[in-house]
Amino acid sequence: xxxxxxxxxxxxxxxxxxxxxxxxxxxxxxxxxxxxxxxxxxxxxxxxxxxxxxxxxxxxxxxxxxxxxxxxxxxxxxxxxxxxxxxxxxxxxxxxxxxxxxxxxxxxxxxxxxxxxxxxxxxxxxxxxxxxxxxxxxxxxxxxxxxxxxxxxxxxxxxxxxxxxxxxxxxxxxxxxxxxxxxxxxxxxxxxxxxxxxxxxxxxxxxxxxxxxxxxxxxxxxxxxxxxxxxxxxxxxxxxxxxxxxxxxxxxxxxxxxxxxxxxxxxxxxxxxxxxxxxxxxxxxxxxxxxxxxxxxxxxxxxxxxxxxxxxxxxxxxxxxxxxxxxxxxxxxxxxxxx
Length: 339
Prior knowledge:
The chain has 339 residues and is an alpha+beta fold. The protein has helices spanning 7-19, 60-76, 84-89, 104-119, 129-132, 147-153, 184-198, 292-315, and strands at 23-24, 38-44, 47-53, 95-96, 99-101, 162-165, 168-171, 204-208, 211-215, 224-229, 238-244, 248-253, 258-261, 264-267, 282-289, 321-326, 331-333. A hairpin with an 8-residue loop joins strand 10 (224-229) and strand 11. It starts with 6 loop residues before the first helix and ends in a 6-residue tail after the last strand.
């Protein structure tokens, strides 16, 4: 999931994700050199991570943000044998009764993931790992998995059969495993924001390959401009742009990771009930929220629910807005989404 040696290949493949919610910077008339932002870009978490800080020259804070990415990779990666999640999925962690002992942060994120399973009635399901592990959208020759294998794998998908009590995670059945890919980047972005706020930063942007989190506003007065990628258009071509202050913007769509086989497009947003990519006439969902972890989970959840049920869910949640993009190019907004 996070293989540094594949930087060149994967970076090229993931450029559409990076641009799906790219921060658009404009010049600042009258700014002095000391007011210019400082920024760091690196390949982390299987995507390109960019952190930009305003009104500071302390580059050590940029180092600290990247170190946080590395730290959480060793907690949440599904495929890294050194990660805590990998060891949990393979039964390699210290045990307590029928469960395994994990860190507080891993327990917290798994609990959050399970809560979205409840909220969506299983449309969002972090136990989809047996299915998602059969799909490899980063391969040079991606292919649809064997139908028999998919059918067997989806029998092990059920968020209701995972429990978290304190730091103990228990699977009710064998062969179950967890994939936090649909929620981890949002959680990490929130923790990076906490780190920056604790160190006195009041104006910054965190971009984890399409998960954009804005701290404060730009230069103390101007909102950030965050562009939403037009599905399947050339990278950087925005469908629209939002003025954002102290909010998270997260987009998920069929255009991010996909391949075609026999003239059929297969994308990475998998339906836990079928094991195959979700088919509901949507190409993208963008969530505007306070916490990036919520935006991350909800962008996938609402895509899987479809525009009607997804919109109903968004309207029931406080301080949360959504934009749905259909494959016909129609835009469906929640009541408070800036148009």
